[in-house]
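Quick one, probably user error.
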């Protein structure tokens, strides 16, 4: 499991436990440390876990209303704890993340994977729907990012050029 994916899992599990226990911010450091120790005992750098959790909690007052707006048929207290905290993480990465490190589509896909792993049967579709709506409302940042495609095409052109020279 890649370190960032593992970090997201630990962040989600920590937010879940924090939410389950009443959502007192002063409990979070202890919860996070326990989960890092339990789920990633060999992990040397857990700064991404801390960043995700801190940013999510610091911006919860902006994140939760977005969940309510984008899933109006589901009042926030009726969204399962798992789905609610996966959405919080995903929205956190969409709104406050560094797009150079984690492009929006990657953040959405990661949240969907967490939902499939930890949530119920419909969690992946629910998370996809809510995050997709937010992504579209943001103007679909980096939608047309072709950095990898350009590199791939450039490599093909270089290979073709080398073949022509050799042939």
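Nope, works fine. Designed sequence:
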């Amino acid at each position: 499991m890649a370190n960032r994916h593992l970090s997201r899992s630990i962040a989600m599990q920590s937010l879940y436990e924090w939410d389950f226990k009443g959502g007192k911010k002063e409990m979070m450091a202890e919860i996070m440390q326990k989960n890092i120790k339990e789920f990633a005992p060999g992990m040397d750098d857990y700064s991404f876990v801390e960043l995700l959790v801190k940013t999510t909690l610091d911006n919860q007052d902006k994140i939760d209303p977005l969940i309510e707006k984008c899933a109006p048929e589901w009042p926030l207290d009726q969204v399962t704890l798992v789905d609610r905290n996966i959405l919080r993480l995903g929205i956190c990465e969409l709104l406050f993340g560094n797009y150079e490190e984690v492009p929006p589509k990657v953040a959405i896909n990661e949240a969907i994977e967490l939902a499939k792993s930890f949530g119920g049967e419909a969690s992946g579709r629910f998370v996809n729907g809510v995050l997709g709506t937010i992504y579209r409302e943001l103007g679909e940042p980096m939608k047309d990012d072709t950095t990898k495609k350009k590199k791939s095409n450039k490599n093909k052109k270089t290979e073709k050029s080398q073949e022509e020279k050799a042939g």
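Helices lie at 3-20, 28-39, 47-58, 60-70, 81-96, 104-118, 123-137, 147-166.
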